[in-house]
Specification:
With 342 residues, this protein is mostly helical. The protein has helices spanning 7-26, 37-43, 61-71, 73-76, 112-122, 133-146, 222-238, 257-274, 287-295, 298-307, 327-339; strands at residues 58-60, 155-157, 309-310, 315-316.
């Protein structure tokens, strides 16, 4: 039978553990230093449904409209309808029970705090964490307005955000099922060599995912990409948009060795924006969009791509946000895009 030690021994043991814990907390491995309050605050940006964690600030629907059109509409559409395969933000109410529901901020999300938290943490796509708290409140207010959850005079603040009730909140609940663990296999186990593990390459965005008609993981395959490109052209034709047919022009000259070497980098790291002209990025093949840039010379274009650049049309983050790419890989990708757009 287990028995408690005498009170004096227990107290001594607890005191010793507390002292050791206090010492080890700051010197676990004998290197580094304790993070400052300012450094911790820089990472402590999560927001709870009750509003805890929200920074002081405010933003109106009116202010949010301009910010949304400037920073969000290129991907999500002027009215939250979504461009291409980018997420739809508005509408979808009453569709959750359907076979193909439209899950939007207004139809699916349970808390308004998630909207603020995600925008502040990860948006806009080319430049996450570039929005101020007031700008984030304003854009959040406008997205709520697009979903008919607030009126056009509404001002969202850190004090009233938790009061915004989302229509689908009651349909979220704590899963009552208990946690379970699989029994470790000791005999007659599956052969790991016979298992097929599938997945995407880390850090690579499937090119076709952002095009109409993309179909799962195959969207990153070149053949699937070409199929989706054709489908997108047909869709634009139906909308009355003039589309240049393949082979209708003389086409670009033969690519240089650097451009050929940069094609893979373009497809893996650049096509998400430059393939569709997202967020002000010049679309590959659009001669008009590239003409002035090419006139600046390769040295300038490569410098902007490597170090980042902010212009009237938008902002290019350094290396497109892919700090793992070498300068040479970026330069070759620029060569591929420029030569393919002449």
């Amino acid at each position: 039978m287990f028995k408690l030690a005498k009170p004096t021994l227990v107290a001594a043991a607890v005191s010793a553990s507390l002292v050791a814990g206090a010492v080890n907390a700051g010197e676990n491995f004998g290197f580094g230093r304790t993070a400052t309050a300012e450094e911790i605050a820089g990472w402590d940006i999560d927001v709870r449904p009750d509003g805890m964690g929200l920074p002081v600030g405010e933003g109106s629907v009116l202010d949010g409209e301009g910010l949304y059109e400037e920073k969000c509409a290129a991907c999500h559409g002027l009215f939250g309808e979504g461009e291409g395969r980018w997420p739809v933000l508005a509408g979808g109410q009453g569709t959750l029970a359907q076979e193909r529901p439209t899950k939007t901020v207004g139809s699916y999300w349970p808390y308004a705090s998630t909207l603020y938290d995600y925008i502040y943490r990860a948006m806009p796509f080319p430049a996450p964490r570039s929005l101020t708290p007031d700008e984030t409140y304003a854009i959040s207010a406008y997205v709520l307005y697009l979903n008919d959850l607030v009126d056009e005079e509404f001002v969202l603040t850190n004090e009233n955000l938790a009061d915004v009730k989302m229509p689908n909140e009651p349909n979220f609940f704590v899963d009552p099922r208990p946690d379970v663990n699989n029994t470790r296999c000791m005999t007659d186990c599956a052969d790991p060599a016979a298992m097929q593990v599938t997945g995407s390459i880390g850090g690579v965005t499937p090119v076709g995912h952002f095009m109409e008609g993309a179909d799962g993981p195959a969207a990153s395959h070149e053949a699937q990409h070409e199929l989706e490109k054709k489908m997108e052209q047909e869709r634009l034709k139906e909308l009355g948009v003039e589309v240049e047919e393949e082979g209708a022009s003389s086409g670009p000259a033969a690519l240089s060795e650097a451009a050929l070497a940069g094609k893979a980098t373009y497809e893996q790291a650049c096509a998400a924006c430059h393939g569709m002209g997202i967020a002000g990025a010049p679309k590959v093949g659009d001669k008009g969009a590239w003409e002035a840039r090419i006139a600046q010379g390769m040295e300038t274009m490569v410098n902007h791509a490597i170090n980042g650049f902010a212009g009237d049309a938008g902002m290019m983050p350094a290396k497109g946000g892919r700090s793992d790419l070498s300068d040479e890989a970026v330069a070759n990708a620029v060569a591929y895009m420029a030569e393919s757009s002449q």
